[in-house]
Write a structure and sequence with these properties.
mainly alpha
Length: 346
C-alpha cells in the first residue's frame, strides 16, 4: 500500500506538471523545470522556520519588562507585531529560501545575482506580506479576547496565516532561482506551478509521515495538489506582469490607460516600479484568498464546496495562460519597434 500511495503521488504530480508544461508555448528546458522542482521541495524549510519563531520567539518577548507596555496596549501591540513580522520575514524567509536556492544550484552565478536583485527589488513585497500577517495576528488576538472561541485562532491564526506565508515563499523560490530565465509571462506561470507542485508533493509526504497514516496521501493528492498549483499559477501570472513591467507600462502609457490602483502617486517610484509592486500585491492577495477560502471550507466541513471551486480555479489558470500570451505578443512587438497609437482627444 505504501508503494501504491507513493506511485499515485508521483504520477499525479508528473501529470499535472506535464499538463501545464504543454500550455507554455515557449517552455523552459527540462533542466530548468527539474531545477525549479528540486528547489521547491525545500520551500517548507523557511515556512517551518518562520512558524517556529512565531510560536516561540514572539510569546517570550512578554517575559521582558521592556516589552510589556507594548504587548498590553492593543494599538501598540498591533504596531509591534507588524514590525516584528517585517523583521522576521526579511531575515528568516528570505535568508533561508536564498540559502536553499544557492546551495541546490551549486553556487551558480545567476542565482547569486538574482538573490542580490531580489534584496533590492522586494522591499514593498515584504512590507505588504508583513502588513497582512500583522493584521491577521492582531485580529486573531482581538477576536479571541472578544468571543473566546477556538475557531477564531484556527481560521485567522493558522489557516490564513499559513496561506500568506506559503504563497509568498513559493514566489521567493521562483524569484531567486529562475528570475533571469523568464522569457515571457507563460514561463512565470509554469515555473510558479512547478514550485507549487513540489511544495504540495513534500507537504503530502510530511503530513502522512507525521500522522502515521499513509492513506491520507490519496485524498491529499486529489485535493491539495490542485489547490497549490492554482494558487501558485495565479501568483505566477501577476509575477509575470511584474517581471515585464517596463515594456507593459510603456505600451499602456501609449493610450494613457495605466492608473495605479493600490499605490499612492506620492511615492517616488517610476511608473514601471509602481506597476511592478502593484502586481506583486495583487498576486499575493488573490493567491492567498483562493488558498485560504479552500482551507476554511475544509475546516468548516464544507469540503464538497471546495471541489467546484478548484475546478473553477483550474479553468482560470488556463485563461491566464491565454491572457498572458496576448501580453507576451504585445511585448514582443514593442521590442521590435512597434508603438501603440496615441489617441488624440476629441
Amino acid at each position: 500500500m505504501v508503494l501504491f500511495y507513493a506511485t499515485l503521488l508521483i504520477l499525479t504530480t508528473l501529470a499535472w506538471g506535464y499538463l501545464f508544461y504543454k500550455k507554455d508555448y515557449h517552455p523552459q528546458p527540462f533542466k530548468v523545470i527539474a531545477q525549479s522542482f528540486g528547489v521547491g521541495l525545500f520551500a517548507m524549510v523557511p515556512v517551518f522556520g518562520y512558524k517556529y519563531l512565531y510560536q516561540h520567539f514572539l510569546p517570550r518577548l512578554s517575559e521582558y519588562e521592556i516589552f510589556q507596555p507594548l504587548l498590553e496596549s492593543a494599538l501598540l501591540s498591533g504596531i509591534f507585531i507588524f514590525i516584528a513580522n517585517l523583521v522576521l520575514l526579511s531575515i528568516i524567509l528570505f535568508a533561508l529560501s536564498g540559502l536553499v536556492s544557492v546551495v541546490l544550484n551549486f553556487f551558480n552565478h545567476n542565482v547569486l545575482t538574482n538573490l542580490k536583485n531580489a534584496i533590492k527589488d522586494e522591499p514593498l513585497g515584504f512590507v505588504t506580506v508583513s502588513l497582512m500577517i500583522g493584521l491577521v495576528i492582531y485580529l486573531q488576538t482581538l477576536f479571541q479576547n472578544w468571543f473566546n472561541h477556538p475557531i477564531i485562532g484556527t481560521a485567522l491564526g493558522t489557516i490564513l496565516f499559513l496561506a500568506i506565508i506559503e504563497e509568498y515563499i513559493k514566489h521567493l523560490i521562483v524569484r531567486i532561482t529562475d528570475d533571469k530565465k523568464l522569457k515571457d509571462i507563460d514561463d512565470a506561470i509554469t515555473l510558479s506551478i512547478v514550485v507549487g507542485l513540489a511544495f504540495a508533493f513534500i507537504e503530502n509526504i510530511i503530513y502522512s509521515l507525521a500522522s502515521g497514516d499513509m492513506s491520507i496521501i490519496f485524498y491529499r493528492t486529489m485535493i491539495t495538489i490542485p489547490i497549490h498549483l492554482v494558487a501558485s499559477g495565479i501568483f505566477g501570472y501577476y509575477y509575470g506582469l511584474a517581471h515585464f513591467a517596463q515594456p507593459i507600462v510603456k505600451i499602456e502609457e501609449g493610450d494613457k490607460t495605466y492608473r495605479s490602483k493600490w499605490l499612492p502617486k506620492l511615492l517616488t517610484f517610476k511608473r514601471s516600479a509602481l506597476y511592478r509592486e502593484e502586481k506583486i500585491m495583487e498576486g499575493i492577495f488573490f493567491a492567498t484568498l483562493f488558498h485560504a477560502v479552500i482551507n476554511l471550507l475544509f475546516e468548516f466541513t464544507l469540503g464538497f464546496l471546495a471541489v467546484p471551486l478548484i475546478v473553477v480555479g483550474i479553468v482560470i489558470i488556463f485563461r491566464l495562460y491565454k491572457v498572458g500570451q496576448k501580453e507576451d505578443r504585445l511585448v514582443a512587438k514593442f521590442r521590435k519597434g512597434w508603438r501603440p497609437k496615441i489617441k488624440k482627444p476629441a
